[in-house]
């Protein structure tokens, strides 16, 4: 009898729009986490203010992108992957839902935190409305919430990468589903 193949054939890939949005969002989020980490270590001054300004602009962009992504997702559900067990499907779906929830909540908490400072909400030079006026206690609360949620998101992204690597080790590579130029097979 033939031995089973070490690697099962790939399942149908995601559509091009989902792939484009996934990779744009991934670069933006990893960049924002890196910038957040860098900012936190800077002393008060011009460099810190400039870094925070840049972080706010790209953070609001990430919020707009998750709205586009969720609207796209409603019309483009993920293609089924017959290689995964029902339990693996459930776990992946739960992980992805949690990722989406944090991708909404992290920038929202950042926006709320910045709303309760005396600084204007400038996004790429354009002043946006704020959700409130200067309030130290609310600023501190949403700032701490933003930090906590952002680090939870970073941990979940690490688990996400771990799951992609684990599937590859199990001979069921899922990365090809998120890469352009792959043919639907299996
Ligand atoms: C998904 C988007 C975002 C991610 C992943 C993100 C990530 C982070 C991270 C990792 C930190 C450092 C936390 C720490 O010090 O422990 C941070 C700080 C901060 N973020 Fe965000 N952020 C995002 C969106 C936003 C938005 C939309 C705003 C405001 C409009 C914002 C405003 C801030 C501010 C004011 C700080 C604190 C700066 C300081 O006082 O050191 N962030 N962010
Ligand atoms: C940078 C390395 C990354 C790799 C290699 C990667 C890989 C993948 C792969 C292969 C899938 C499809 C899994 C499947 O259903 O078969 C996926 C889905 C997903 N990824 Fe990533 N990812 C990365 C980073 C990120 C980041 C930083 C985020 C956060 C913005 C993210 C959010 C998501 C979400 C929400 C889905 C679910 C898509 C859906 O079904 O709607 N990924 N990722």
TrEMBL record:
Coiled coil: none annotated. It comes from Thauera sinica. The keyword Translocase does not apply. The chain crosses the membrane at residues 20-40, 52-72, 92-112, 148-169. Its cofactor is heme b. Residues 14-181 form the Cytochrome b561 bacterial/Ni-hydrogenase domain. The keyword Protein biosynthesis does not apply. Keywords: Cell membrane, Electron transport, Heme, Iron, Membrane, Metal-binding, Transmembrane, Transmembrane helix, Transport. It is found in: Cell membrane. This is Cytochrome b. It is a multi-pass membrane protein. InterPro entries: Cyt_b561_bac/Ni-Hgenase, Cytochrome_b561_oxidase, Di-haem_cyt_TM. Belongs to the cytochrome b561 family.
């Amino acid at each position: 009898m033939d031995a089973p193949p070490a690697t099962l054939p790939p399942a149908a890939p995601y559509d091009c729009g989902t792939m484009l949005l996934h990779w744009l969002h991934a670069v933006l989020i990893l960049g924002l986490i890196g910038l957040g980490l860098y900012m936190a270590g800077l002393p008060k001054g011009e460099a810190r203010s400039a870094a925070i300004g840049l972080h706010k602009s790209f953070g609001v962009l990430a919020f707009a992108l998750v709205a586009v992504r969720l609207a796209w997702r409603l019309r483009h559900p993920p293609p089924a992957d017959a290689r995964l067990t029902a339990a693996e499907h459930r776990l992946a779906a739960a992980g992805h839902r949690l990722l989406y929830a944090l991708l909404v909540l992290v920038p929202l908490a950042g926006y709320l935190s910045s709303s309760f400072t005396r600084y204007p909400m400038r996004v790429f030079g354009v002043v946006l409305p704020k959700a409130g006026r200067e309030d130290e206690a609310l600023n501190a609360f949403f700032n701490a919430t933003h930090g906590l949620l952002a680090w939870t998101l970073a941990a979940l992204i690490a688990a996400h990468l771990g799951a992609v690597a684990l599937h590859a080790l199990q001979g069921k590579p899922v990365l090809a589903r998120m890469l352009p130029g792959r043919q639907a097979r299996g």
